[in-house]
Amino acid sequence: MPFVVYNSLSKSKEPFRSLEPGVVRMYNCGPTVYNRPHVGNYRAFLFADTLRRWLEYSGYRVEQVMNITDVGHLTDDADDGEDKLEKQARKEKLDPWQISRKVAEQFFADLRALGVRPAKVYPKASEHIAEMVEIIEGLIAKGHAYAVGGDVYFDVKSFPRYGKLSGNRVEDLEAGSRIAVREEKRNPEDFALWKSDPAHIMKWATRFGPDGFPGWHIECSAMARKHLGDRLDIHTGGEDNIFPHHECEIAQSESFTGQPFATFWMHSKFLQVDGGKMSKSLGNTYTLDDVSARGYTPRQLRFALIRGHYRAPLNFTWDAMKDAASSLENLDDLVVRLRRISNGEGAASDPNAGAEAVAAARAEFEQHLNDDLNVAPALAPLFGLRTKALEGAFGSVAAKHALEFVGRANEVLGVIAVEEQSLDARIDALIQERQAARKSKDFRRADEIRKQLDAEGIVLEDTPKGVVWKRR
User: Fold this and answer.
1) Continuous segment of H or E residues that includes residue 212
2) Cα-flanking dihedrals φ and ψ of residue 454, to 5°?
3) Quick check: helix, strand or coil at residue 451?
4) Assuming Cys at both sites, which of 55, 137, 230, 377 could form a disulfide with 60, CB separation 3.0 to 4.6 Å?
């Protein structure tokens, strides 16, 4: 079965094909680094990482670029309002460059904690001014943009296909609805490519004037072109990016190059919190630190955020986190049991017993992920393998193959503890001491040791064949 994805551009599922065989050029809208990203942001970033992992599992080399917006993103996502970086800088009484560096460093630390594979490059908008100016000058020369004073606007009516992604028709757009009302514009829906503001702290001297800074939309077009070329295979982002951001990217990029910008557009749904909207005023914009403070790990959060379909609503609650942690513990347990069986412990007499179940699990896993990256049902065969392991249905050879498959599956999921686990001498000594205490009927000491190990993340299980352990 080929990989089929829902293309936001065509509003339908389409078989995925890359422009260059075996290579995928993918651009992901990254963070605006004025404040630390929260769990809602990470749903979109983890979707991009899971997509990249599945493409690599399928044999592609993925050229992935995720931008860092450190200038030009205004508070109303249009042409008016304050720059988010400068607003935060005033609030914290810091230089905006300090804010961007601090938040970007935290963002990368969070990505590492969440097990996100590093992109090819994380370009910063502030380091691509020359590339933006080149495109803006080209758009002016081609009649798609015009300068008014120190500002430059894209003429939306010069691009008849404007609205093809979002479905918004130019004649239906209302000024004031994410569209800034400015008298100097030819059309109310025209958007800024470059803005002039002497009071703006982050600014550059160009042919348009001495005190300018880029519009938010032109930044991504310039960075994508710089690092991936004129045409992309996939462009991703959250559903809130569709309009105006991605719509404007398409208009300016295609007007400049004369070619389609991206073949496939993929967007993740918003993350809800307790069934409602996430907002700072409600105090529910949780960061990784907030999740850790509740006793959950980044790995458990990753699992909670990727196990729902990226285009379906996902509700973040602490009960859902508890369920995710419990389910992930079962997947970790699957690995422990398969490793034990592959070594002959508790294996069925036929070494190949269960081989058909492993092949079926692999086929089902791949079938669901090929269906628009449908992670939720793709997890079912993994839990099915655990049930068979609990039933003693695997021979040693089949268990080894199952273990190999779980490892491959985890290359996509990035959540299961597949590494062979080892105990250090101190913990091993405690387990031996507990066994001795049980033998001498000192159950109080045995319970104390169990609780101590549990606090360190070591879970013990007493079986007829002795004590087995795993890390929680």
Assistant:
1) strand 209-214
2) -60, -40
3) helix
4) 55
